[in-house]
Amino acid sequence: MTRLMRLYYYGVLGAIGGTIAWQISNLVGLSFFTNVYLSEIAVGAMIGFCIGLLIGLAEGISTRNPVVAMRAGLISGGLGLVGGAIGLPLAEFLFQLAGGEAWARSIGWGFFGMLIGLACSATAGSQVWKGAVGGILGGILGGLLLESARNWLSDPLLGKAAGLLLLGASVGVFIALIFFLLSKAWLQVASGKLKGTEFILDKFLRAEGPAAFIGSDALKADIVLPDPDVAPQHAMLKGAGTHISIKDMSREGTFVNNKKVEQGTLRNKQTIRVGNTQLVYFEKR
After folding, report:
1. What is the pTM of this model?
2. Which residues make Cβ contacts (< 8 Å) with residue 213, sequence separation at least 6?
3. CB atoms within 10 A of CB 129
4. Among 39, 147, 153, 189, which is disulfide-ready with 194 (CB 3.0 to 4.6 Å)?
């Protein structure tokens, strides 16, 4: 899946999360809370969990890695729950403080989006500020769209549904968009079952941080390739930005530009072959 397709998946799954939250809130009602703020905490937590869970699943789904999907979904859902529980009451407080101005509520949703963005980047070992920035922007815009939908649509239920759908989609799209715009290096699968899929290396590697592994075992590798000729941990990547090195860890060998290497520094548009799968390394300066 390309980096552009990630925008689609993050947006669609975020929108689905918002829609699920709307359905649950209608079914449960949450009217058993007499205190308004307790009710908003419960509603916000439920909205945050649903949107966070679905957006967290996006990365694993996009790379067909169920382990990453489950881990990221649960962590993102958990932080989304916290963000929603704080963000919705905060949004209402700011709304009242600003004299009923709709833009004030969007600040609370920006906080909500920030926590989801942090979760989406932290689970991949990335520079967390990228996810946070995307989440804040998506939360603020989504909050404005949510309030606008409520005002434009005469049916309150329909307005709430449209608003939560737009909120989830906005948070998801902006998280993916920031990674897309600021990514410096990525691997594109040129052959095999995942042909066309792109792995953003910024999400796996940090300066002086842990290495990332290319392999066939979802429990041992970060970049998982469904190729029987790829070892569980076939090659190791280290570095950050556009200074990425590769080290072979297999018996079968790792080939860069059709030459077997023990280790070396990658350069733009070089090909990497592990097993029967060919990857192309790209970097943006």
Report:
1. 0.82
2. 220, 221, 222, 223, 233, 234, 235, 236, 237, 249
3. 13
4. 189
| Domain residue ranges of the chain, discontinuous segments joined by + | 3-182, 185-283
Helix (H) or strand (E) holding 233: none
**pLDDT tens sequence across 124-169:** 555 677 888 999 999 999 989 988 888 888 888 888 899 999 999 9
The CATH number given to 185-283 is: 2.60.200.20
Distance (Å, whole) CA 40 – CA 49 = 14
Distances (CA, A) of 4 to 130, 173, 181, 196, 259: 17, 10, 10, 11, 31
Exposed, middle or buried by CB within 10 Å (0-12, 13-18, 19+), for 36? exposed
